[in-house]
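Give me the fold.
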Amino acid sequence: MVSRVHKRTSLCRSIQQLRSITNSHARRRTSVILDASEYIRGLKQKLQELNQLAVAAAQNVIDYGPMPMLKVEQQEEGFMIKVLSQRSCQGLLAFILEAFERLGLEVLQARASCVDTFCLEAFGIKENNQGTHLVNARVVEEVVSQAIQNWSEVTKQH
């Protein structure tokens, strides 16, 4: 009898730890385990991406070329936009933020570095009071890519 209570208590503690680690709000054990499984899949995917970047960096394969590299990922509530360049890109941030404004994207969180290299990671969501037309990752990528192209043309003129 005591061992059953001990096992049940231990299981409840383990489920609670799993719930807190994975930020799960599920009540049922099976749902918590499914959330944990999804969390692990996400971690594996991030690890693979980091490993690929590490291998590419070690082989000096990453070449951003004259134009910054752009990656747009659609997430549940918005878009993660990443722009990288091996050189400083003075003024590029303003062009990208103007593109966000044209799209009606509100930036909720952003990290930017413009010193020796240019790196921008921004998470934006569609503003509620803007038009009802659909915005997807492809549209965001096209508009931000056009902003980068416009920046490139302006900087070539100077």
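Residues 29-58 form the longest helix (30 residues).
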